[in-house]
Write a structure and sequence with these properties.
Length: about 475
């Protein structure tokens, strides 16, 4: 079943009854001032029936991952000591902004978190087979603490916040660290968990990034996954809009940290936003658009530090005219694998073997190509690449180039998957790039290049194609 096919129990409810999912990322909840801003934004949107999804406080997910490493390499008390200053950041916010019973709930939750983290670290040390599931269990505490704290702050502000467990909503497979949602179960459980609360006008607060298997084991959706949680919940509830609140006022024509002249794209199509996210624009998790696309739910990107600064909205069609170039992005951490098979070989079978071997080593493949001369794969660089290449040696001569980046130009290129855009090629003349063709997306063109040169290439393409400088 896909998102447009599930039984629509809310279709009869008027649009004004449909909730708005509001997701706040790590920097939007990095300290007391940031949490206070979030509470004010939620208050203003109260009539839009908010469902609040929050990330861990900035730096907390990394801190939890580092604690796991410490627990395994040193011991449990060292790992917990390391986390104390991070728990302190949450407590400090609670002391400043939460009060009464809600403050008590948060303090009890933090106490229970310490106990359960201690048990998890001990178990991981003793039984290494438990590390993958327990890693997700541990890492989920960043988001769970944020959701509990957010509810306490809303309640102290006189709003009907209630922390609810995202793991009771988002049902996934058991690929820990990168779990895939089970759509039908997620729809059923999200509605079951949230609809009664929404009917009472409660503002549910949920941790992003986390889910659970059907058996109840905690899972996570991959780094940056809170955006994806927000659209999964938004689609399950048939939200009127999903708002992604972050530290920039929209999706820009390039990462504003890299290209200071980048400008906000007021409107993007689902495909354009997805290609940007897939090829490096950190502002959105690559799967964010998937759940809402068929339901045509708009997704907006807004700045929690400056809500009045404007925003981008992602809808089925951006209205970009044919040939328009909208944005440039790059994704580092790629590798290129080339195989020149020895002896007699058939391209299709060899390509199949290559894909299977890479997959067996957990290597994520972005692009595959074959010709009479050999095979080429563009992959995410990871530990598995070297191992896969060792296995491939029996098939022929194998070459690997690491420290590559994918450069992506987003625009309206039409349906001709094999054609390069002449202006794009000209603007890249100073760089050594390999076009990745065919690339069957009407919204983007991809090039492989040295990682070190990619930021300069992004700036140059942006200046020439978006700013239209000579
Ligand atoms: P959050 O913690 O809210 O999820 P992220 O750090 O994941 O926020 O994403 C926001 C960041 O994405 C911005 O600070 C910006 O530097 C980066 N970014 C990369 N590419 C783009 C782009 N094209 N437009 C806007 N922001 C971008
Ligand atoms: N806290 C998680 C991360 O840092 C998820 C998210 O922020 O979206 O990756
Ligand atoms: Mg993010």
């Amino acid at each position: 079943m896909n998102p447009s096919d599930y039984p629509d129990s809310s279709a009869s409810a008027g649009a004004e009854r449909r909730p708005t999912v509001m997701k706040f990322g790590g920097t939007s909840v990095q300290d007391a001032a940031a949490f206070a801003r979030v509470a004010a934004i939620v208050r203003r949107q109260r009539p839009q029936r908010p469902v609040v999804v929050v990330s861990a406080m900035a730096g907390m997910t990394d801190a939890l991952l580092a604690a796991i490493k410490l627990a395994l390499e040193a011991d449990t008390p060292t790992a917990l000591d390391w986390l104390e200053s991070h728990f302190g950041r949450y407590s400090e916010v609670a002391e400043q902004l939460a009060g009464g019973a809600a403050y008590g709930d948060f303090v009890r939750f933090l106490y229970a978190a310490r106990e359960s983290l201690t048990r998890a670290f001990d178990t991981m040390r003793r039984y290494p087979g438990t590390i993958p599931p327990l890693r997700d269990e541990v890492v989920a505490y960043g988001e769970r603490l944020s959701a509990t704290l957010m509810a306490a702050i809303l309640v102290n502000d006189g709003l009907p916040g209630r922390a609810m467990d995202a793991r009771a909503c988002i049902v996934t497979d058991d690929v820990y660290g990168r779990a895939r949602p089970r759509w039908e179960d997620t729809v059923a459980r999200t509605r079951q968990t949230l609809q009664a609360a929404l009917a009472e006008d409660v503002i549910p607060t949920l941790g992003g990034f986390i889910g659970a298997t059907l058996d109840g084991a905690t899972t996570t959706l991959g780094r940056g996954g809170s955006d994806y949680s927000a659209t999964l919940i938004g689609a399950a509830l048939q939200a009127r809009e999903v708002q992604i609140w972050t530290d920039v006022a929209g999706i820009y024509s390039a990462d504003p940290r890299l290209a200071p002249n980048a400008r906000r794209l007021e409107s993007l199509a689902y495909g354009e936003a997805t290609d940007l996210a897939l090829y490096g624009a950190k502002v959105l998790h690559p799967r964010t658009i998937e759940p809402v696309e068929r339901l045509r739910i708009p997704v907006s990107i807004r700045n929690s530090y400056a809500p009045e600064d404007g925003y981008s909205v992602i809808t089925p069609d951006s209205g970009a005219p044919p040939g328009a170039i909208l944005a440039v992005t790059h994704r580092a951490g790629m590798a290129a694998v080339h195989v020149r098979p020895s002896g007699a070989w058939r391209a299709a079978a060899a390509l199949d073997d290559l894909a299977r071997t890479l997959n067996a080593h957990g290597v994520i493949v972005e692009h595959l190509a074959a010709s009479r001369m050999g095979l080429a794969a563009t992959v995410e660089d990871s530990e598995g690449v070297a191992a896969a290449c060792r296995d491939l040696r029996g098939a022929g001569e194998v070459q690997v180039a690491t420290q590559r980046a994918l450069l992506c130009v987003v625009g309206n290129f039409g349906d001709e998957a094999t054609e390069l855009h002449p202006t794009v090629s000209e603007a890249l003349a100073d760089f050594r790039v390999t076009p990745l063709l065919p690339h069957p997306s009407p919204c983007s063109r991809l090039f492989l290049m040295a990682e070190a040169d990619a930021p300069a290439a992004v700036r140059q393409l942006h200046a020439r194609l978006v700013e239209n400088l000579a």
